[in-house]
Amino acid sequence: MKRILTFGLLGMGLFMALSAAKQPNLPNALAQDSLRIPAGVDPNDENWKGIDLTPKDPIKPLSIEEEAKRFQLPPGYKIQAVLTEPAIQQPGEIVFDGNGRMYVLELRSYMLDADSKNELEPISRISRWEDKNNDGVYETGTTFVDNLIFPRFVLPYGKDAILTMESDADNIYKYTDTNGDGKSDKKELFTTKYGRSGNVEHQQAFLFYGMDNWLYSTVNAFRIRETPNGIIREKTGANRAQWGITQDDNGKLWFQGGASGVPSYFQFPIQYGNYDVPNELAKGFEVPWGAAVKIADMQGGMDEIRQPDGSLNRVTGSAGNDIYRGDRLPTSLRGQLFYGEPVARIVRQINPVVKEGLTTLHNVFQDQKSEFLKSTDPLFRPVDMATAPDGTMYIVDMYHGIIQEGQWTPKDSYLRLKIDQYRLDKVVGLGRIWRITYDGQERDKKQARMYDEKSATLVNYLNHPNGWWQDMAQQVLVLRKDKSVVPALKQMALTGSTINGRIHALWTLEGLGALTAPTVQKMVVDANPRIRIQALKASETLYKAGDKSFAATYQKSMLDKDPEVAMQAIFSAKFVKAPDLETQVKASLAKHPTGGVKLVGEQTITPPKPRQNGPFNGTELSKDQKEILARGELVFAELCSQCHGNDGMGKSMGNNKLLAPALAGSFRIQSHPEYAVRVLLHGLDGAVEGKNYAGGMMQPMKEQSDQWISDVVSYIRNGLSNDASFVTPQQVAAIRAKTSNQKAMYKFESLMSQVPQEFPTDASWKFAASNTVSTRVGGNASPRSATNYEGWSTGITQAKDMWYQIEFPQSFKLSEFHFTSNTTFKRPSKPTPGVAPTMIPTYPRLMHLETSIDGINWSTHVANWKGKEGDNVVSFDPVKTKFVRLKLGEGLTKEADEIPWSMRQVKIYGLK
């Protein structure tokens, strides 16, 4: 189960800003026959030294056979193509389903020219391929989902079904082939509030099915999981990743950075939050040792180029990753981390060295000044890799001219000059997938058919020597929900013949909802420390469901002789908020005063301050927000949990009957806050979405204060697998006043007709603006400006009568306009070496909201409204309209001088 690459990746956005002063001031519109230092530039200028601007022959694609000759591998290793163009184009990810079929994410709109034009056209696809004659080549394929807008990932999710989402979108959808023709014909909403908008480099990617049965992605600091009552969500640490997720035999996730060029978070399981660990990378780790590619097309300029061979001298981007867990390559590779560096044209092998529970990463071939795989072909672009069902490792080669998104290839830049010099923008529409083999070790020719086999057979695969078979057998069993195998799984978990099989049996039980305390307690005292660790992790599910007896288990395990077991006990106790944590951690520190226990223990008692390393980290809550959540949690625990359950999943009454609806992971709770506020004020009676509950009704609580209701609603929207905005007492007061005539409890259908609903965007919405050359529609209605900032921007100083407009395909009854204001770079006209551009907030300083039926005659509904940094909500009385427009008004203050107006994540609410 693997990942996707969303490119631009190698652009090093923040680095670009910080090193802008190092770039030469290149001439505009350089022609191929005039690539030379422009007149008036001193040839001795340091910025120009060593830059070869003489005309060159265009870089042209090699045949499959010729490219294979350009690869350099350690002795004994071989490489062969298994699927290539024209069958596929511009692959970004591969992943295998339970029947061994290979899904390919084809990013067909990626960098078709140097300006990334039409990057969000719906021309990408997910194809599915089979090797029916078992000769090692995937010859039979179908287009499983077509006409996608730069999809973010593909994850097989049951027989003939996948999960995916598009760029600038907020929703994950499940696509299913119901008639067996290899093409999806059913599309279902899986979950929402999952995405973000803006540059494709900065969006979430790589949906990954973890051993713990949760789904994880890059960027997002949360995980999700499907339950009988819907999708639930839990917050995690910030993974700081962009371009890869993989897992090891213990189910620990390894996240891959993008612009950093190195792994991002891998030290401990991400669900336990962030810990600062010094010296995670061995000395020299950030130096790549690619082959001589000569063309020196590195975005960072000459400072990033090793002379005279033109190769990369410092990692600048990474793409895809895999902990190799197969059985048909040398055993020395098992548990090693592999990832791609497409700018350097290498695949790197990493040896994770663990000492006292802390991991340090070492480049296996650093002493030889080499890498596991490299190529002299400038078009080799390794962007993903995977342990395959046949026990080998596959490499995804986009085989592309440009490997940086258009934001990082502007005219006048060093990289753009190199692109023009070698005509790299002409190499598009290709792509190759390769298999790595080793002399004397034939690939496994047994073809997977898990969707067609009995559950008892799948249990046996949990012992398979190839980790892919273990992972997929567990996933298929859990999604199949077949509890007939529970006895066999219990026996395997307790007495199985392999450690990996026992671990997977434990987590399969957990995924089936069949895990019991006696089984876990036996495994907590197992002779093998890996089993003890996994039992502690699995016990968290039971603790959260109400079995608080495990608090004593955590206390005892913190004193385990194995430091990694003690560390896990601290993690688990902290995660479930077991009592008296600090005292117990101090006792563990006394027994293990060094290494990982020392680091984890001390940072558990005194957490480090959150890092702020770019746009991929979660936002730290303010003191006031923490106090709101604490008050709301107390009320929920004392009152609401009696019906809705401790975890918000609804208290079970047996026979699949709940006392009250689940609140965790609820679309209704996470949508407009007015829904929850109205329910608390006036109550709710009867069925909800056609489903009856044993409790029958939610009693009104309008006698409570506005602060009390805002605290409870804020906690429910943020603390129970939900991720939504806080609610203020002022908002509650406004809703209370608006609904003062409501005397009886609501009925669900009547309530929903009165609560503002989000109008999801589609391609029929038309965007326009006074100061934008082009705009785009995404799932978040996020337009894109010619300046290539995330979202939309005027690009110039705010001025009276600037406007931003949306035209709908039909009239809607609108009542709210939501958007998030950007913070962006203020770029000086004359950059100063070593001085980074300052950051400025770009919210609208003074604004009107207007509507129109015909786009000619406009009515003002909100006048002289002042924006703010971050989330903005413009509310007005419901009005039927076909056009809505934000327009800057008179009286702009000096504060707006030299500040553009920009927005992202625009959402429209109204009554349906």
From TrEMBL:
Domain Cytochrome c, residue spans: 627-720
SUPFAM superfamilies per UniProt: ARM repeat, Cytochrome c, Galactose-binding domain-like, Soluble quinoprotein glucose dehydrogenase
Name listed for the protein in its UniProt record: C-type cytochrome
InterPro entries attached to this UniProt entry: 6-blade_b-propeller_TolB-like, ARM-like, ARM-type_fold, Cyt_c-like_dom, Cyt_c-like_dom_sf, DUF7133, Galactose-bd-like_sf, Quinoprot_gluc/sorb_DH_b-prop
Signal sequence extent: 1-20
Species the sequence originates in: Aquirufa regiilacus
UniProt keyword terms in alphabetical order: Heme, Iron, Metal-binding, Signal
Residue numbers spanned by region Disordered: 599-620
